[in-house]
Design goal:
Elements: H1 5-20, H2 32-38, E1 41-46, E2 49-55
Length: about 70
Amino acid sequence: TTLDQTAVAALCDAIADATARGAGVLLATHDREFVSAVCDTILELRAGEVVAELQMPFAYHAEAPGDQVAC
């Protein structure tokens, strides 16, 4: 992500606030670490088609130490 840590924390807070109010949040990103930190359901799309649906939590293994996002 091109967001700094302060912006990432603010985005995490905004997502948490919205879901606490019962809202659904659509997040489109390629950042798997961020997705694994903030989402409870993940739909993977390829060419506009759903190819996988994952329910959190699932084990995400970072490619390198420090790749995990903390919210």
